[in-house]
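Standup notes
- HV: blocked on the assembly model, inputs below
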Amino acid sequence: MKPVEFEKIKRPEKIGLPFMLDFYPLQDEKNTKISQFFKDLKEGHLTTTKCQKCDKLLWPPRIVCPNCLTSELEWVDLGTQGELYAFTEIRLGAPLGFVQDVPFCIGIVRIGGLLISTRIDNAKYDQLKIGDKLTLKIIELEDGRVFYRFKRP
Amino acid sequence: MRNVAIVGGGAAKAGRRAASWRDLAQEAGKSMFEDVENISPKDVDSIFVGAAQPERFSFLSYVAPLVAEYIGVTPRKVIARTELACVSGQAAIRYAWNCVATGMSDIAVAIGVEKMYPPDMAEAQTTMACVLDREWDGVNCFSAPPFFAVTAQRHMYEFGTTEEQMALVSVKNHHYSSLNPIAHLQKEVTVEAVLKSPVVAPPLKLFDCCPMTDGSAGVILVPAEDAKKYTDTPMYLMGSGQYAIGNVINNLASLTEWIPLKLAAKEAWRTAKITKDDVDIAEVHDCFTISEILEYEGLEFCEKGKGGKFIEEGESYIGGKVAVNPSGGIMGCGHPLGATSIYHAIEILKQFRGDVDSGMYVKGATIGIQHSLSGAANQHSLIVYGREPR
């Protein structure tokens, strides 16, 4: 009887960070209807949509007002100065793509009447307190995509 | 609408298990059917499978037929997977309950499965971090631990809650889980050990957090009028409440007062025709120590802002105002997302049967509630169970 054949097969040794594990959204007009948000970020402005009918400020930006279902939304600038509402520091358990940055601070910032989550740069946990003034900062990924952060002045 | 009862249930030992996703499902299925002598898998007409993230953790979708096949069920009325993150299991019970209540199903199974121990922790954390709005909160690294860390920080800031008070929740729940043979963690901890455990995201330390757990659990639901055919000790579903407000952090009702929990509880008490004072056992979602403190307040076992004091005074121990998590809770038993809330139901069933260690037994309990929350605590679900039919 012939022996059963054994063969070692090869698979790619490394797979790059695939799209499905990338936290940063696709940003151009081919992929999203809120590409204006990212265009504004590229010019240094943090913006969001406001309903022209009911005046509700909507975060995150969107294409339909959930309050009155209109698509008549306008882009408004939220400014560059935020106030720290709550914060923590990632020390253990960071996801892929963030592990190399540990430890780093994240928090919730009050800006333009919103409470938005953010990375907080230039800060260690012990240097921060609730109520601190923080400034807008834009980061750019290697492929040109952008996102907002806040930093300690 | 028909009244509905749970006639039995079974679970896999929770923990870091040398078992695959489908091994766990089979263990729970076997244990569940062995618990109810005269229901066999072929009698079941409907099945709901609670599974939060099998795509990520185990690279599996379409898991309801897979579980049905493995536990010998051939569904002929309703079959579906239920996903609601950490509440996926309770969602399965609620769907099964509805199907039996409406007459669509006569014997339904709610079973939850989650396998959370892949080899790579960063990948597992990536999986968890797409529960909160991935593009707007996850992208800023808000997953469960940091979200509950800022919740704790604000609660400390607004109400003076202390890290020691949070540690006391961990001490209580690890105490009870040390007595629970299917719990993930079966060792007691001290306040000092909690405070000195590695910092995950301040003010939360490792022992303020529930573990990552593999587990599976299932229960069988039938019309209440048939329940005694299958068991002497059915557990009756008396009422429920569920409420969700917002999703992204900006759109939460409040960080430190869980308004959806208050509203869900109000509805649960109303539909079960009870008050909070009637609750003997509360199996609540202590994913983090701060969560249980907010739950004392949201369920109105104590005043808003006084949750820390409530544990400090021992009111949530057996013999206190209400026994909270006498099973050991998620903190001690583990949190296999899709199965967690089905473990809750089984723990209350075991209490009603008197089938628990004497140190965790709530003697004479007639009303038990299970509570689960998901995401940024923006969704809360409660079920009220009775030892007697309503």
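- HV (later): unblocked. Chain B touches chain A at residues 121-123, 125-126, 128-129, 133-143, 145-146, 149-151, 153-154, 157, 198-204, 206, 248-251, 255 (CB under 8 Å). Chain B has 14 helices and twelve strands.
- Next: hand off to the docking folks.
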